[in-house]
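Appendix B. Raw example, untouched.
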Amino acid sequence: MQLTICTSPLRNTPFLRLGKLLSAFGVLCIGWLTPANAADVTELPKGLQAKVELAKKACEEFDNGQFGLEWGAVERVDLDGDLYSDWVLNEFGFACSTAASLYCGTGGCMSHFLVSDEVHSLLNKGWDIVTFGAEKVLLSKVHGSQCGGINPTPCVTASVWDGEEKTWRSTGAEWE
C-alpha cells in the first residue's frame, strides 16, 4: 500500500487564511448579535422583572406549572435612535410547563418595550426596527381587526418613540 500526500497550491494561501479568520470571526459575531437569553431575571430592569413575575405567577397558578424564559424572550435593540440598546421582553419566549398557550393567542403575543425607564406593551405577531431617515421605526404585524378585517387580514403598524413625551407615536393612514 502506498501513501500519497496531496498538496494543493491553495492550501495555505493568504486568501484561504483570511477565509478561515473571517469564518472564526463570524461564529463569534453570531453570539454577539443574537438576542440575549435572560435565564437570570435579576439582570432585567425592574419594569420588565415585574412582567416576568406576573407571568411566572400565572404559570404557577395554572396547575402548579414551572415557568421559564426561552430563546428570544429578551432582546437588546436601539428603539429610540440614541445609539444605546434598549430592552424588549417578548412573551413568545415565555414557557409554562402546564400550559402550551398561556402567553400567546390568535392575536399574537405581548412584547414589552422599555425605553427611557418607560415600559409600553403591544400585542403583536412579530416586530422589527427599521431606520427611516433620522427615525427608528417600530414595525409591528398586528391582528387584522386593527385594519378593519379579521385575524388573517394583513395589517401592520408603524410607531416612533417621542423622547420628550415618553410615548410611542403612530397614526392610521387615510388612503384614498
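End of appendix B.
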